[in-house]
Specification:
mainly beta, lipopolysaccharide transport protein A fold, about 45% strand, globular
């Protein structure tokens, strides 16, 4: 069963295997890739520090992936000693879209090893007409589990017979 919400909850879980290409799209013939299968990150500025193990994308950040689209003011990827993504943090007017589900927050943090995704700063998730809000929303990527606290608010509209409607569809994309 495909879980549409899974991808949004991952935030940028697929970032682990990202390929970064220039914003212009002008690639040398020997380096040409099929962008339809790649994750493309564009921003006004990219700072990469191998010694400090991080990449920082600033201003007008856009992540386009085959499974989701993310916009933010800033995106930071911290790598472990094996050059694998350890944490991915999007900040400032974060919007994540995937297959009819949209999430908004001021900050989204993905802890790659644990699969934990943390949305804060007026997080809100909408699928169809259904909406989930709270002060923080935390997901565990592999467990189909979530905590929304405090001030949790879930607005559900009557089931219209379409897959993905109702509380379970809002949270897990069924």
């Amino acid at each position: 069963m495909k879980k549409a919400w899974y991808g949004v909850a991952l935030i940028v879980g697929c970032m682990i295997g990202w390929t970064v290409v220039p914003a212009t799209g002008a690639l040398d013939e020997d380096f040409a890739i099929d962008e339809a299968e790649a994750t493309v990150i564009t921003s006004s500025r990219l700072t990469f520090d191998q010694e400090q193990r991080f990449a920082l994308f600033e201003e007008d950040v856009l992540v386009v992936d085959p499974s989701l689209r993310l916009t933010a003011d800033r995106l930071t990827v911290v790598f472990d000693e094996n050059d694998q993504a350890e944490t991915i943090e999007a900040e400032g007017d974060v919007v994540i879209e995937q297959e009819g589900t949209t999430a908004w927050s001021q900050k989204a943090t993905y802890e790659v090893p644990s699969g934990k995704i943390f949305l804060e700063g007026a997080p809100r998730i909408r699928r169809g007409r259904d909406v989930l809000e709270g002060d923080t929303i935390t997901f565990w990527r592999d467990d189909n589990r979530m905590i929304c606290e405090p001030q949790a608010r879930l607005v559900l509209f009557p089931d219209d017979g379409e897959p993905g409607s109702g509380a379970r569809g809002l949270m897990f994309g069924e």
